[in-house]
Design brief:
heterodimer; A: 354 residues; alpha+beta; five-stranded mixed beta sheet; elongated; B: 604 residues; Cytochrome C Oxidase, Chain A; two-stranded antiparallel ribbon; 1% strand; binds protoporphyrin IX containing FE; binds copper (II) ion
Chain lengths: 354, 604
């Protein structure tokens, strides 16, 4: 194998020298540093490339438009998708037109001996046009963009929303619910222990009813959910692509994001015609070896189903007296994921083969 | 030789005090090739080092592209290069994946496109184009190269240590980069990274200060600022950006060194790792990001502006037309440079920054699009009704305009804070900055090498091989980075070792295979370039003094390298550098050192 590669290498090298000598002799016999036939050939290639490139781009759009993220699962997400499409139309237009003009000029005005270039050094009018037109277009883009941004990030009424925490650590997520009082209990990072993985302050009256879950978490449709984000060790990022939501988890501080889920998991499965569809939470900030496998499923369901599911979960004070949270009632699915998270590559592969 | 009957050489040798070209002491091997203080030799040293580092970083990218296209598959070549520890059975380990990504990014951004690009062309062209005998300080210039060299050696050496090199991404965000418990690369590997980058900053500052002083003080008679070639304008502004922003990186690095080694908590707070609560509280990892991107964003223009300057020069020369909107080009360089200091927050929209502050950064970031657009349109107008000579350099310059536009427009999407929420840290960002910064700057660098090779080595490179190199590279760049947008739009995060853990990413897999295919295709073209380069150094056709019929002063100096550049007195300048195809002239070019003919106006 290695020998074949070396052999091919030597052959290629020899070939290059041949080409080189041949090319230099041809060029050497001419006066110009670049021959007219070379110029003509490359000018023609510009147009060929332009067409091929555009075909490739359109093919990409065509092939992948329905493989991108499915319809957004939150109201904010739908606003964002609209904004995105609006911007795409503008930049798509600029992209095609400017590239086309560039390649067209490059192929049209190639060197001819009896030609003389037009001495055209500047034109205030033209320069004004292409300063002002982009400025106007950008103003529209900025105004529309900031409107959506302000809407998405506007403060919300915390009491009326479901209070949740997403807690990141190498390489797993834990979700915490505010419990009966819908208030998240205080924490102190020094309190981390096997039976208190999120470092809750047990004396805090708001902490006892908090509920911790792993593997997957549920949220009800049509209700504002506010996520408080924390990290145990390094920076992680809580990314929920289907909801178009993301925020970093930074050790030493608390960050926040919120949205209203608009479609249940079941509805999305129907809309995407994919019975296995799941909303996903994943980590989107490099955080170590298993960064690529730090996930949690999200189930959006009716208020009743959500309440039923939440009722089956132990509260923090209950779990303090029981076993560590991490090992409570691991469903089969969850087991698989939790092992994969800490597993090395080989182990992951063994898992998959099973 | 050619220059003997060159009409532009001044006949009367006035033996002015600056004519130190005249004392002929033959320098020995060491002072000529190693510890040279001559800007032309230093420029070649930078170029060779950059080519070496570039080949290294490119090989790394092929390695991790193999893993992304065929995750978990065994490749003997990986085992051969990475060994049993990092690629057992020919499958790269996740730690090694992150290490390769990190070092690839670091080398490409800093060593190839900053040190390599500015080091090579600022050094070569500033003295020659402003009409100076050498840099303001030859000694500091030499030091600049040797700091760069040592820094490169340390970065290279860090690949061979036991725990592997730095692996926290080229942006080395703490706490990941601060805690060896978090990732093995944050041990000795990160220490070496920090030392190497500190030396790099020293090199960059020494170089930049020299460039600035040389441009301001050593311009020859008649070389006013509005007669400077755009290359020199770009190099000057780049150097100013470097001087203002690299010290900030240095402070960021210094504080990180303190956190890592002396128990301070600038960036660390409330961390629990490896079963232990760390003592540090009160610091903020976000502080590091502010400091880093205060350098980081100007850095992208430090990389890009020299490439744009080179392109301006080449497009004008090879179109046989003045650059369109010379003053607007200078204005946009200055506007971009100024704005680049107040946009850094667009890298931090989802770090929890105040949404209002985010809005301010949206505004400033999108402002940059205006001068960028002006530049693109001016290039295209320069081509219009030109007489385009398609040398390999010209092809790369045209390629740069295309990638600059294609990559620039996606910047508009990312600058919109709302749209950045679902796109931040996905492959969409990777596609954007590789096209707008990576490809454009590399194209500028290739264009510069092909164009000034005769000036550097006195010989010509092969055009034919240059064409092969260009077309394959151009196709490969778009083949690799255009589809990458779609991977990002599917939600795939960057810096993932494998996408197999998520069923939702399965339908992007075939794109990853296509991309790796194009990447390998493109890498092969670089072999052609490296061959063409080295073979031409020894066997290339001998160059004439002004092979491209260009106007700038570097082509009025003899082909052989003289210490002091010009044999007699320094050339004097009477006009701007873009008098191509000027009406009323027989030739389609009028070099800067030709006086205005009676009645001629200097119009631009
Ligand atoms: C013209 C030259 C440009 C260069 C060299 C450049 C370079 C870069 C680089 C290196 C990154 C990656 C940062 C990372 O590692 O995450 C980046 C991201 C970004 N670029 Fe550009 N860029 C350019 C133009 C633009 C333009 C014209 C805009 C906007 C109008 C823009 C907006 C952004 C934004 C907002 C990000 C951050 C995206 C994110 O982190 O999610 N860039 N750019
Ligand atoms: Cu993570
Ligand atoms: Cu930036």
């Amino acid at each position: 194998m290695i020998y074949i590669v070396i052999l091919i290498g030597i052959l290629a090298f020899w070939q290059l020298i041949k080409v080189y000598e041949y090319a230099t002799i041809i060029n050497g016999s001419k006066e110009e540093t670049v021959s007219e036939s070379d110029t003509r050939f490359n000018a023609k290639m510009m147009m060929v490339f332009c067409v091929a490139f555009f075909v490739f781009c359109i093919w990409n759009f065509w092939m992948y438009q329905d493989k991108l993220l499915p319809h957004a699962g939150s109201e904010n997400g739908e606003d964002l998708d609209l904004l995105f499409n609006f911007n795409m139309v503008i930049i798509g237009f600029v992209f095609f037109v400017v590239n086309a003009v560039l390649f067209y000029f490059a192929s049209k005005y190639y060197y001819r001996k009896d030609n003389k270039a037009t001495f055209f050094a500047h034109s205030s009018k033209l320069e004004m046009i292409w300063t002002i037109v982009p400025a106007i277009v950008l103003t529209v883009i900025i105004i529309y963009g900031l409107k959506v941004w302000n809407h998405i990030t506007a403060p919300i009424n915390e009491k009326e929303s479901i209070q949740m925490e997403l807690y990141a650590q190498q390489f797993a997520w834990t979700a915490r619910y505010g419990g009966k009082d819908n208030v998240l209990g205080k924490t102190n990072y020094r309190l981390i222990a096997d039976n208190n993985p999120l470092a809750l302050v047990a004396e805090d009256p708001n902490a006892g009813d908090d509920k911790l879950v792993k593997g997957e978490f549920h949220i009800p449709i049509g209700k504002m959910v506010q996520f408080k984000l924390r990290s145990r060790d390094v920076i992680h990022s809580a990314f929920m692509p289907h909801f178009r939501a993301q925020m970093n988890c930074v050790p030493g501080m608390e960050t926040e994001m919120h949205f209203v889920p608009k479609y249940t998991t079941a509805q999305m499965r129907e809309m995407t015609k994919n019975p296995k569809f799941n909303y996903i939470l994943l980590c989107n900030k490099i955080c170590g070896a298993a960064h690529y496998n730090m996930q949690m499923d999200i189930i959006v369901e009716s208020k009743e189903d959500y309440n039923k599911w939440l009722a089956t979960k132990k509260t923090f004070s209950e779990s303090l007296t029981a076993e560590p949270v991490a090992t409570t009632e691991p469903a089969k699915e969850e087991m698989k994921k939790d092992t994969a998270i800490t597993a090395t590559v080989e182990e992951v592969k063994v898992e998959e083969k099973k | 030789m050619d220059h003997a009957h060159d009409t532009h050489t001044h006949e009367g040798h006035d033996h002015g005090h600056d004519a130190h070209a005249h004392h002929h002491e033959e320098p020995g091997f060491w002072t000529k090739y190693i510890f040279s203080e001559d800007h032309k030799m230093i420029s070649r040293q930078f170029l060779l080092t950059a080519i070496f580092m570039g080949v290294l970083a490119m090989m790394m990218s092929i390695f991790f592209r193999l893993q992304l296209a065929w995750p978990g598959e065994s490749f003997p070549i990986l085992n051969y290069f990475l060994g049993d520890k990092w690629a057992p059975g020919g499958v790269m380990s996740p730690d090694m994946y992150l290490a390769l990504v990190t070092i690839h990014g670091t080398i490409m951004v800093f060593f190839v496109l900053t040190g390599g690009l500015s080091g090579t062309f600022s050094n070569l062209l500033i003295p020659l184009q402003v009409g100076a005998r050498d840099m303001a300080s030859g000694f500091l210039n030499m030091l600049s190269y040797w700091f760069f060299f040592i820094s490169s050696v340390i970065m290279f050496a860090s690949l061979f240590i036991e725990d592997g090199p730095a692996s926290a991404g080229w942006t080395i965000y703490p706490p990941l980069s601060a805690l060896p418990q978090a990732i093995p690369g944050s041990g000795l590997g990160m220490t070496l990274w920090l030392v190497s980058m500190s030396l790099f900053v020293v090199s960059s500052l020494l170089g930049s200060l020299n460039y600035i002083v040389t441009v301001i003080n050593l311009r020859t008679k008649g070389m006013t600022f509005t007669r400077l070639p755009l290359t020199v304008w770009a190099f000057l502004v780049t150097a100013i950006l470097g001087v203002l922003s690299f010290p900030v990186l240095f402070s960021a690095v210094l504080l990180l060194i303190f956190d890592r080694s002396f128990g301070t908590s600038f960036y660390l707070s409330d961390i629990f790792i490896s079963g232990q609560a760390l003592e540090q509280t009160g610091g903020s990892p976000i502080l590091f990001q502010h400091l880093f991107w205060f350098l980081g964003h100007p850095e992208v223009y430090i990389v890009l502006l020299p490439a744009l300057g080179i392109t301006s020069e080449i497009i004008a020369t090879m179109s046989r037309k003045p650059i369109f909107g010379y003053r607007a080009m200078i204005g946009s360089i200055l506007a971009i440079a100024f704005l680049s200091f107040i946009v850094w927050g667009h890298h931090m929209f989802v770090t929890g920054m105040n949404p209002f502050l985010g809005s301010v950064f949206v505004f400033t970031t999108l402002l940059i699009a205006i001068p960028s657009a002006v530049k693109a349109f001016n290039y295209i107008t320069t081509l219009w009704k030109g007489n385009l000579i398609m040398s390999p350099a010209m092809l790369f310059a045209i390629g740069l305009v295309s990638t600059f536009v294609t990559g620039g427009v996606t910047g508009i999407i990312l600058a919109d804070s709302a749209l950045d929420i679902p796109l931040h840290d996905t492959y969409f960002v990777v596609a954007h900055f590789h096209i707008v910064m990576g490809a454009s700057a590399i194209f500028g660098m290739f264009a510069g090498v092909y164009h000034w090779f005769p000036r550097m080595f006195g010989r010509m490179m092969s055009n034919k091989l240059g064409y092969v190199h260009f077309w394959v590279t151009f196709i490969a760049v778009y083949g690799v980075f255009f589809p990458m947008h779609f991977i990002g739009l599917s939600g795939v995060p960057r810096r993932y070792y494998s996408n197999e853990a998520f069923a939702m990413f399965d339908n992007t897999h075939d794109l990853n295979v296509i991309i790796t295919g194009f990447a390998i295709f493109g890498a092969i073209a670089q072999v052609v370039f490296v061959f063409n380069f080295f073979f031409s150094v020894y066997k290339g056709k001998r160059a004439t003094q002004n092979p491209w019929n260009s106007n700038t002063l570097e082509w009025t100096a003899p082909v052989e390298h003289l210490h002091g550049n010009w044999p007699g007195s320094l050339p004097e300048v009477y006009r701007w550098p873009y008098d191509y195809s000027k009406p009323g002239k027989d030739e389609d070019f009028v070099p800067q050192n030709i006086p205005l003919s009676p009645g001629e106006v200097e119009n631009h």
